[in-house]
Specification:
The protein contains three helices and no strands. It has one domain. The mean pLDDT is 84. It is mainly alpha-helical.
Length: 66
C-alpha cells in the first residue's frame, strides 16, 4: 500500500513543479508545447498500463488482504 502512494507522489511531483513554474512566470507553456507534452504523457501511460496488466497478480493481492 505504501509503495503505491510513494510511486504516485513521485509521479505527481514533476507535474506540480510545472504548474508552479507556470503560475510564477518562470515557464511559459504554449499550445504546441502542451500538445507535445500531452502526446508524450499518453505514450508513457500506454506503456505503463501494458506493463501493469502483465505484472499484476490478482490472486497474490487477494491473499495478502485476507
Amino acid at each position: 500500500m505504501w509503495e503505491a502512494q510513494q510511486i504516485s507522489a513521485l509521479l505527481l511531483l514533476p507535474i506540480i513543479g510545472v504548474m508552479i513554474s507556470q503560475v510564477k512566470g518562470v515557464l511559459y507553456l504554449t499550445v504546441p508545447v502542451n500538445l507535445i507534452a500531452g502526446a508524450v504523457i499518453y505514450v508513457i501511460d500506454v506503456f505503463v498500463y501494458r506493463w501493469l496488466v502483465r505484472t499484476l497478480n490478482r490472486e497474490r493481492i487477494v491473499t495478502k488482504l485476507a
